[in-house]
Design goal:
The protein is an alpha/beta fold. The protein is 38% helix and 17% strand. It has twelve helices and twelve strands. The chain binds zinc ion (ZN).
Length: 364
């Protein structure tokens, strides 16, 4: 298998000290096409960025993890005495580095006894930072769904909710507002019924894969030190759920990761001004929408007098149109500024058949 993109890794952790270089060098041979190395504080950020400079398939996310507020040896405590604002200010220069493509790992954690207000303020400040820098985020949410979602609703970042552990319902609206959901080893564990439910409900365009290595090794290597090559096992499990070949799962999720992070496209820098994220939101029937956030969008509406069956069929055709368009652009997110012009003739044809209306709008 190949085209593995690991959207959440910690290769700078000490569990890799003994053989880091040998392991990193072996990853491409194991099918790994991309890694997002996530820092957790100012202490490991330089190592994360150094990995991204050393290995062309590695990019870095820089941020302060909520657990760093409670770890005595994390610089957030040891150097800054809990003054995360000062630490974050000191980390600003990292974001001028083109190898740093995201703000992460950031989020909320109620599993460990961490100061509630501080972590909330820290997360919010980093969401503001991501908005200011127009960067995606890598979000950690452990037993803190309600507060995490409230801030995600408020700031509407793009990025990944890593190791997604919420409900299927929440997965759907998160995907609609532009978040991808990260799945890794946990999705392969026996009793991962919730993950199976979520994977069945969520649009596949919102699913990305990850390790969170050195932790969370999937079955059948559970309990061992994890690395990005093991994502192949996750693809096998998701392939069972989706009735897809594991390689197809890898290709699809890799395309999603490339779109979300604007990276791993053969070294091409992201083009934030014309990047479009084709996503089709199926909202309440019989009114449906197809849109590209931050770009122009088709607003498609099936009037109430169109029978549900016919609307369904028309909708499927529209979805197919979008899928074909993506395929004609290397199966990746379309970087096309002529998306509307390209698709309009075909949309018009379907309109004549299925009786929907459409308008074209500029979306932010
Ligand atoms: Zn992590």
């Amino acid at each position: 298998m190949n085209n593995i993109i690991d959207t959440h890794a910690h290769y700078s952790s000490r569990q890799f000290d003994a053989d880091r270089d040998a392991l990193m060098a072996a990853l491409p041979g194991g099918g790994v096409a991309g890694v997002l190395e996530c820092a957790t504080h100012s202490g490991d950020a330089p190592a994360a960025v150094a990995l991204a400079h050393r290995y062309p398939f590695v990019r870095a996310a820089v941020g302060i993890h909520p657990e760093s507020l409670g770890e005595e040896d994390a610089p957030t405590v040891a150097v800054y005495g809990g003054d995360w604002r000062a630490e974050l200010a000191a980390m600003r220069p990292f974001f001028e580095d083109p190898a740093v493509i995201a703000v992460g790992e950031i989020g909320l954690d109620h599993h460990w006894p961490l100061p509630a207000r501080e972590q909330l303020e820290l997360f919010e400040a980093q969401l503001q930072l991501a908005a200011e820098l127009d960067l995606p985020v890598s979000v950690h949410d452990r037993e803190a769904h309600a507060e995490t979602y409230a801030l995600l609703r408020q700031y509407k970042p793009r990025g990944v909710l890593h190791c997604y552990s919420g409900s299927a319902e929440d997965a759907v609206w998160l995907a609609e507002q532009g978040m991808a959901l990260g799945f890794g080893g946990a999705a392969t564990y026996k009793g991962a019924k919730r993950a199976a439910k979520v994977l069945a409900a969520v649009p596949r365009s919102a699913v990305v894969l990850e390790t969170d290595c050195p932790y969370m090794a999937p079955e059948p290597v559970r309990g061992r030190r994890n690395d990005s090559r093991n994502i192949a096992h996750v693809a096998v499990r998701i392939g069972e759920l989706w009735d897809m070949d594991p390689q197809q799962v890898l290709d699809l999720t890799a395309a999603n990761a490339r779109r979300v992070f604007g990276a791993w496209e053969g070294g091409t820098p992201p083009m934030p001004n014309i990047v479009c994220k084709p996503s089709i939101d199926r909202t309440e029937e019989p009114s449906m929408k197809a849109r590209i956030p931050k770009h122009r969008e088709f607003i498609i509406d099936f009037p109430k007098d169109v029978p549900a069956e016919k609307a369904d069929e028309g909708w499927d055709k529209l979805m197919g149109l979008m899928e074909d368009y993506k395929k004609s652009h290397n199966g990746q997110t379309v970087y096309s500024p002529t998306f509307i012009e390209d698709l309009e003739p075909a949309v018009k044809e379907l309109q004549a058949q299925y009786g929907f209306t459409y308008t074209i709008q500029n979306s932010k």
